[in-house]
Design a protein that fits this description.
Oligomer: single chain
Helix content: 25-40%
Largest sheet: 8 strands, mixed
Number of domains: 1
Mean pLDDT: 96
CATH superfamily: Thiamin diphosphate (ThDP)-binding fold, Pyr/PP domains
Low-confidence stretches: none
CATH architecture: 3-Layer(aba) Sandwich
Length: 338
C-alpha cells in the first residue's frame, strides 16, 4: 500500500507554540514515513511512537499510528520492552534534551550500548521548555535561565560524543528547518538495524529563542554548517568553495583553489568507519573555528540486542527438555502430598 504524508497525521490539534522548531521536525517525520514504509514494505500498523515527558513528548498525539506517552525519562525503557516483546515493530522515540539526558540518561546510554533496534529522535533546544525555562544538560556554559540567573556553571553534554562513548552504531544531527535533510536522516535511521540517534537542533521561541541562530540563520547557514554524506567529499560554503582536510590527524578548514587545494584532495566522509576517531572530531566541530556537522555522521553495523535475545531463546528452547507447563511444574525438586 502506498501511503501519503497525511496518512500519518492524527486529528489532534498540534499544541506547540507558534514558531516552535518541533513543528518542522514533525513535518519531516510525516514526509519520511511513506518512503520508510515503501522501502521496508511496512504497513502503518507496525509503527509505534513512544515518548516521555516534555514539549517534544507530545509527538505521539500528532501521529496516526500506535503510540505510548510514558513518564519522565522512561521512554527508552518502554521502547526497549516493546522491541524485545515484538521485534517486528518499528519503534520511534521522541524525547527532549532533559527527558533523555538528565532523568532518562541512564536508560539512554544503555539502549545505545545494547544496540536495541529503536529510532531515538532527540529534540535539543538547550532548555527545559515545558517547565518554563530552566537550564538543561545541553545548555551552554554561562547561559542565563530561571535556574541559573547568574549563568550556568556546568559544561553541557555533546550528545554525539555521548553516543560514541556508549558504542553507538548510528548518529545523525540536523537543524529543525532542514526539512529535506531531516526526511533523509529519518529514512536512513529506519533502515539502520540497531539503535539510531537523530539529534534535532530545535528552537524554543519562548524560553531560548535563537539558541542555534549563529548557524541556523539562512544568511549564514551554508558557511557555518556542513552536510555530510557517506562517500562524498567534505565541501561546504555558500559558493561551495570551502572544505575539510586531515592534517597531522586533525581536521582543518581549507579554501578550494588556494595552496593547490582541489576537491579531490578533501576528506571524504566515511560514516561506516569502525574507528570513530574522525567521526568524533566531526561531531565536536564548533563555529567559529569550524562548520557544524549535519547529516548522518556514523552508521556501522553490529548485532542488535533484540536479535541476540531472539537467538538465545531459540537456542534454549531447542535444547530444553521441558516442552510444556506440566513438565515445568513437575521438574526439579517436587513432592507428591498424599
Amino acid at each position: 500500500m502506498a501511503y501519503l504524508p497525511q496518512d500519518f497525521k492524527s486529528n489532534q490539534e498540534v499544541r506547540w507554540c507558534p514558531g516552535c522548531g518541533d513543528h518542522a521536525v514533525l513535518a519531516s517525520i510525516h514526509r519520511a514515513l511513506p518512503q520508510v514504509c515503501e522501502d521496508l514494505h511496512y504497513t502503518k500498523e507496525r509503527l509505534v511512537f513512544v515518548s516521555g515527558i516534555g514539549c517534544s513528548s507530545r509527538l505521539p498525539y500528532y501521529m496516526n499510528t500506535y503510540g505510548f506517552h510514558s513518564i519522565h525519562g522512561r521512554a527508552t525503557a518502554i521502547s526497549t520492552g516493546m522491541k524485545v516483546a515484538n521485534p517486528t515493530l518499528s519503534i520511534w522515540q521522541a524525547c527532549g534534551d532533559g527527558d533523555a539526558l538528565a532523568i532518562g540518561g541512564n536508560h539512554f546510554i544503555h539502549a545505545i550500548r545494547r544496540n536495541i533496534d529503536i529510532n531515538i529522535i532527540l529534540f535539543n533546544n538547550q532548555i527545559y521548555g515545558l517547565t518554563k525555562g530552566q537550564y538543561s544538560p545541553t545548555s551552554r556554559l554561562g547561559q542565563i535561565t530561571k535556574t541559573s540567573p547568574y549563568g550556568t556553571v556546568e559544561n553541557p553534554f555533546t550528545p554525539g560524543s555521548l553516543v560514541l562513548g556508549a558504542r553507538g552504531t548510528f548518529f545523525a544531527r540536523s537543524l529543525d528547518s532542514e526539512l529535506a535533510l531531516n526526511q533523509e536522516i529519518f529514512v536512513s535511521a529506519a533502515k539502520h538495524d540497531g539503535c539510531s540517534v537523530c539529534e534535532m537542533l530545535t528552537n524554543c521561541v519562548i524560553f531560548n529563542d535563537g539558541a542555534h541562530m549563529t548557524i541556523s540563520d539562512r544568511e549564514v547557514r551554508a558557511d557555518r554548517t556542513i552536510t555530510l554524506r557517506h562517500g562524498e567529499p567534505m565541501v561546504f560554503g555558500k559558493e561551495k568553495d570551502k572544505g575539510l582536510i586531515l592534517e597531522n590527524g586533525k581536521l582543518k578548514v581549507v579554501r578550494i583553489g588556494e595552496n593547490g587545494i582541489t576537491v579531490d584532495k578533501l576528506l571524504v566522509h566515511d560514516a561506516h568507519a569502525e574507528d570513530p576517531a574522525i567521526q568524533n572530531q566531526l561531531i565536536n566541530m564548533k563555529y567559529p573555528d569550524f562548520p557544524v556537522a549535519l547529516g548522518v555522521i556514523r552508521e556501522v553495523h553490529e548485532p542488535t540486542y533484540d536479535d541476540r535475545v531472539r537467538d538465545q531463546l531459540a537456542e534454549v528452547k531447542e535444547k530444553s527438555p521441558i516442552t510444556c507447563m506440566d513438565e515445568l511444574l513437575r521438574s526439579g525438586a517436587t513432592w507428591k502430598v498424599e
